[in-house]
Amino acid sequence: MREWTMRKLVCPVLDLLRQGVTPQKIALSIALGIVVGVFPAVGWTTLLCFVIAFVLRLNPVAIQLVNYLMYPVQIVLLIPFVRMGEFLFRAARMPLNLEQIMHLIRVDTMGAIRTLWTATWHAATAWLVVAPLAVAALYFILHPVLRAAAARMSSSQPEAV
Q1: Does the CA dihedral 104-107-108-111 come out positive or negative?
Q2: Residue 103: CB partners within 8 Å, gap ≥ 6?
Q3: Total-model pTM
Q4: Per-residue confidence in pLDDT tens, the chain, 161 aa
Q5: What is the CA 7 to chain-centroid distance, rounded?
Q6: How many CB atoms lie within 10 A of CB 24?
């Protein structure tokens, strides 16, 4: 697991730092990739990440890498976001579980969209409540770490003559 983490996460981030991408941009790309990656509407996160990367001039590779890695977490958080949305809107509790949702999406995607429309926009609203705080927290954790890594990398590189 440690080798996989180094190869898939740490090395690409260090490569971006070596290429001159600022720690601020990488930290924001990662924070947004994590948070957008758990958006409770399966199939939308890639497009959302591309739009956000374009609008904010962030690194699309970093944001998409993290987004793709968040897919299992997105699936796990679907029901909690639905439940939080039900709470926020004082909506009746939908009798569903993760297996039912995934089966419905695989068998009849358009039917799933129609059936789960209200639950999805309630869940998306709940996500909107949580997302800004999560992005801020992740950014303020990641930025100092990446800034220190960039400083370490620049101090360890020999100066050009």
Answers
A1: negative
A2: none
A3: 0.83
A4: 778 777 777 888 888 888 888 999 999 999 999 999 999 988 899 999 999 999 999 989 889 989 999 999 999 999 899 999 999 999 988 877 778 878 888 898 888 878 788 889 999 999 999 999 999 999 999 999 999 988 888 776 655 44
A5: 19
A6: 14
